[in-house]
Design goal:
Layout lengths: L5 H12 L10 H7 L5 H19 L5 H14 L3
Helix pairs in contact: 1-2, 1-3
Amino acid sequence: MQLPNEADRTDIFQIHTRSIPCGPDVDLKELARLTEGYTGADIKLVCREAAVAALDVCFSSVPALVTRACVYSLLVAGVC
C-alpha cells in the first residue's frame, strides 16, 4: 500500500480536525508537509492526541478522574 502524498495528508488532516476547534495558528498544509511517511491512521492518532492534550490543558484544574472520564466520553462519541 502506498503512503499518502502531501495533498492527501492535508485532506486527511481536514477530515480528522473538522469536529475539533483549532486555533488560527494551526496550518494543516504545514502539518501535512511535516508528516511525510505517516499513514492515515498515524494522522488520525496525531489529531486525537492533540485534542486530548488540549483538553488536558483546559481541564488542568479539574480532578484527574473527572478529566479522564470526560476525555473518554468525547473519544467514544467520536468528537475527537
